[in-house]
Amino acid sequence: MSRLPSRALVMASLVGPMVSGCNTPNLNVRVVTLPNGQLQVDGPLAGPFDTLEDLAENSCKLLTSQPGAAAMSASQAKHGFEYCALYYRTLEDQKYYLSYLSDIGGTRPNGEKFCAVPTAIHALDRKTPLLLGPSHNHPHNPEFSKGDLGKGREEGWSPLGGVARVAEPGTQHVWERKLLLFYWDWRAEVCRTFMYNYFSRVVSALRDGTWVPIGKAVGRDGDFQPFEGQRWIP
Q: Which residues of 125-161 are buried (b: 16+ CB within 10 A; e: fewer)?
């Protein structure tokens, strides 16, 4: 699979869509609504990756490169757009993959952006996917929302009844499901990735290729409590 275009070219292409909008079809968006109302995306869009860290780093660049997904200024961030995807491992090769994107969503009355996370995947390569979690970008800030961190949030996307862990068929290895968040930091010109563990409720940031725990969600509403000396952007 081809790698991503350079960041300079990508961000230059976003300036127009952020401001004026664009009706050109996005070939990275492949989502359908099934008869039961479930959202389904094709896969894979990106991969294979050997590690979750590698997937997260590449997915951050990919999602924040979509039209409207990243801001070049504080004013543009208000008009941003969220995309959702699923990430998974395949039982045949034990590699990580990212699905195609869903652009179904919008803006809530309070101005908060959102995207409806798919709960099913159509594997174009006929490999067997083990869904490990959803992912999405934030055009406006790097922090998980309370909706992301609220207890039971996984019920909104899980095809297995809202469970925070899933056993791999055959090996019975237990995977803790995690939510990935991607943010293009236009001030520092860095793509930042964060991870929320649905089981432990720990929030981590990907820094220099390593997950660094920075805080934890507490309570039903998902209040974020930073660990000592940690913050969203160092």
A: eebebebbbbbbbbbbebbbbbebbbeebbeebbeee
* Residue 176 token pair: 């803790």
Total residues belonging to the chain: 234
Instruction: Determine how many CB atoms are found less than 10 A away from the CB of residue 110.
Output: 5
Q: What pLDDT score was predicted for residue 226?
A: 98
For residues 51 and 53, what is the distance between their CA atoms, to the nearest angstrom?
Answer: 5
Entry pTM = 0.86
Does pLDDT of 191 surpass 90?
yes
| 118 and 41 Cβ atoms separated by less than 8 Å | yes
**Residue 148 contacts residue 179 (beta carbons within 8 Å):** yes
Span 197-223, pLDDT tens digits:
999 999 999 999 999 999 999 998 899
Looking at the predicted structure, is the pLDDT value of residue 13 above 50? no
Residue showing tokens 């909706």 = 147
